[in-house]
Amino acid sequence: MNGFLAYLAAVEGDDERCVRHVDEALASGVAGTRWTLWARGMLDLGHGRVEAALSRLEPMAGGHHVAETRCVPDLVEAAVRLGAPDRAAGAFTRYREWARYTRQPWAEALVLRCRALLEDSEEHFTAALKLEGRPFEQARTALLYGEWLRRMRRKADARTHLRTALETFERLEAAPWAGRARAELSATGSAAPAAPAPGVLARLTPQELQIVRLAAQGLSNRDIAAQLFLSPRTVGYHLYKAYPKLGVASRGELGTIAL
User: How much is the pTM?
Assistant: First the structure.
């Protein structure tokens, strides 16, 4: 039970509660360890710590326990974001076979989402959203599709899916995922339902603001790049452009600004 509660806390982005339930699950014996690994991986993925998420999920994904099976779509997302889709290939093959056996629309929707990421395919995104899915996972698919559309410079189309995702995440109190959807909406030039950037932050472009906020949270350039589907070099360039606008000289000084 504590392992499952740790996963729910991870979805909400509650680090303290997640770690507490993880510790309690581990203290109770081996039975909860798979859930705790998934929970910690999910917590990392939600907060944009993509490399850490992949390291946690890769060794466990593709097994027969429910957590080992259900974590595969999270593994696929982390692997694709880091530009290492092959690290999820074997687990996804087994997951696809499992989904075919279960014949559940929500499972097939996750297969389609994984294929959309692995094959860079709009067709699979739209097919996944047509199937009846579980609200949190359906919102994640809408978010990923919205991110994909923005990268294709189809900002108006992206906003529709990003707003849908944001509404669901806020209803489910999935704070890190809502924050990601809000940031993506801002990057499309849309006024997301959040306070506008105050003062000095208004000098930044939407992408610079996105990157600076992630950097201020302690994410590395590589993790930021993975979250935003950019190269680490591009992230470094945007930070280099943002620092003079903010009146800071380095990443370590970002904590002095209200972001």
Answer: 0.79
